[in-house]
Design goal:
Radius of gyration: 18 Å
Number of helices: 4
Number of strands: 2
Strand order of the largest sheet: 1-2
Distance between the termini: 14 Å
């Protein structure tokens, strides 16, 4: 989820700086790298091999937790829980859309 100006109470330039610093930390850890996207003139951030490995481990952990939830709640309740959580995320994103639409910066 993108950092929102109203959430952090910062100016757009401060948010952009914080995002750049976060990306720099990921680059320092060899998780991502900057490069040029042939479809776009701007600099893009790509997932490095080490980042892909970490992502795979994290996704595996998520899958393991999902199995534990399903074992505890059963398939039907787990599916309902996931739908409800996805609905909550969608509602929160919808609530944030007007704030993002009103932004004039990146």
């Amino acid at each position: 989820m993108p950092v929102e100006q109203r959430r952090v109470g910062a100016e757009p330039a401060d948010v952009a700086l914080a995002e750049a610093q976060a990306i720099d930390r990921l680059i320092d850890r060899s998780l991502v790298y900057r490069g040029h996207d042939p479809a776009d003139r701007r600099v893009a951030v790509f997932l490095a091999d080490r980042g892909a490995e970490l992502l795979g481990r994290v996704e595996g952990g998520v899958t393991d937790h999902h199995r534990l939830i399903e074992a505890a709640y059963g398939t039907e309740r787990t599916e309902r829980l996931m739908r409800d959580l996805e609905g909550l995320v969608g509602a929160l994103e919808e609530e944030d859309r007007p704030a993002r639409a009103g932004r004039t910066g990146p």
